[in-house]
From TrEMBL:
<feature type="domain" description="Tyr recombinase">
    <location>
        <begin position="101"/>
        <end position="306"/>
    </location>
</feature>
<dbReference type="InterPro" id="IPR011010">
    <property type="entry name" value="DNA_brk_join_enz"/>
</dbReference>
<dbReference type="InterPro" id="IPR010998">
    <property type="entry name" value="Integrase_recombinase_N"/>
</dbReference>
<dbReference type="InterPro" id="IPR002104">
    <property type="entry name" value="Integrase_catalytic"/>
</dbReference>
<dbReference type="Pfam" id="PF00589">
    <property type="entry name" value="Phage_integrase"/>
</dbReference>
<keyword id="KW-0233">DNA recombination</keyword>
<keyword id="KW-0238">DNA-binding</keyword>
<dbReference type="InterPro" id="IPR013762">
    <property type="entry name" value="Integrase-like_cat_sf"/>
</dbReference>
<protein>
    <submittedName>
        <fullName>Site-specific recombinase XerD</fullName>
    </submittedName>
</protein>
<dbReference type="InterPro" id="IPR052925">
    <property type="entry name" value="Phage_Integrase-like_Recomb"/>
</dbReference>
Length: 310
């Protein structure tokens, strides 16, 4: 790979690159389209998947096709009037409400953490190291994901060398890149220690149990309790969270990794945080993005007075 290609690849995030590659493959292999494409074939591709794929998914497919044509030096067929008009028509005929992850309410966070702590206690008494490690890891991942409002890919990219935790005080987490860090400048996130549901304590207990000193914070654990060398894949966070919730007796089908982020945003909004403070803490740049995460339904569960405050 030439230096030019290396820098061009670095400018595109890994998740975006994978999504674009899958989208081009879907057009060419699954649907049977030809590249370079014509505006007519792209329009027919949209029609073939109208009502089957969400409009946002179709827009991502168009972006991928556009990027492929531009990078290969071909005219971009997705900008043709017929393509734009077909997409507009699909949006009008198939107005689907955007699906959002169920926010993890604080009462459910408390319940799943209590369940994981009970698992850890039982595993310690039974000298079941694999089960103890999973309970400690999952507790730390869920609490950090909630109180910091991290995305799954951000949790999976955390490195021990970039985390400074002070018991009873707080935790500092540095991410070299994230979705909200468009210029790849890196950003440090701070979270204080809490009296209950404390992410700092959970992180310390995970490191103590795992004896990790460097590399990815969150890793896979095999049946014998061996830790993987690589960090967890972001796609593994959803089943990890759902399994923990199910073991705690919570119906988990509507929860995804975004439930942690939405849960914190909803809690903060109901606790009286102004939108500007919430956007700054989580890392949103525009109000529209923030409001998509804030759950507007009436609060049920723990009262604000009983909640740990940041």
């Amino acid at each position: 790979m030439s230096d030019l290609e290396r820098y061009l690849n670095a400018a595109t995030r890994d998740n975006t690159r994978r999504s674009y590659s899958a989208a081009v493959e879907h057009f060419e292999v699954n649907w049977g389209g030809f590249l370079p494409a014509t505006s007519d074939s792209v329009a027919r591709y949209l029609v073939a998947h109208a009502g089957v794929l969400a409009v946002n998914t179709l827009k991502l497919r168009l972006s991928a096709l556009a990027q492929w044509h531009i990078s290969q030096g071909f005219p971009d067929p997705t900008k043709a009037p017929v393509v734009r008009k077909v997409l507009k028509g699909i949006r009008a005929v198939h107005p689907l409400q955007e699906k959002q992850a169920e926010p993890l309410q604080l009462i459910h966070l408390e319940r799943v953490v209590a369940s994981l702590q009970a698992e850890a206690q039982d595993a310690s008494e039974q000298q079941d190291q694999p089960r103890l490690l999973r309970a400690r890891r999952d507790t730390a991942l869920i609490l950090l994901g909630f109180w910091r409002g991290f995305r799954s890919d951000e949790l999976c990219r955390l490195q021990i060398e970039h985390v400074q935790a002070t018991p009873g005080a707080g935790i500092s987490l540095y991410l070299a890149r994230s979705k909200s860090d468009r210029d790849n400048l890196g950003k440090t996130y701070q979270t204080p220690a809490l009296l209950r549901l404390c992410p700092v304590q959970a992180y310390g207990e995970w490191l103590s149990a795992s004896a990790l000193v460097r590399g990815p914070v969150f890793r896979g654990i095999d049946r014998w309790g061996n830790l993987g060398e690589e960090g967890l894949h972001p796609n593994s966070v959803i089943p990890l969270l759902r399994q923990a919730l199910q073991r705690a007796g919570i119906a988990a089908e509507q929860y995804t990794s975004h439930s942690l982020r939405r849960g914190f945003a909803t809690w903060a909004h109901r606790s009286g945080w102004d939108l500007k403070s919430l956007m700054s803490y989580v890392g949103w740049r525009d109000m529209k993005s923030a409001m998509r995460y804030v759950e507007a339904t009436p609060f049920t569960g723990m009262t604000l007075a009983s909640q740990p405050l940041l």
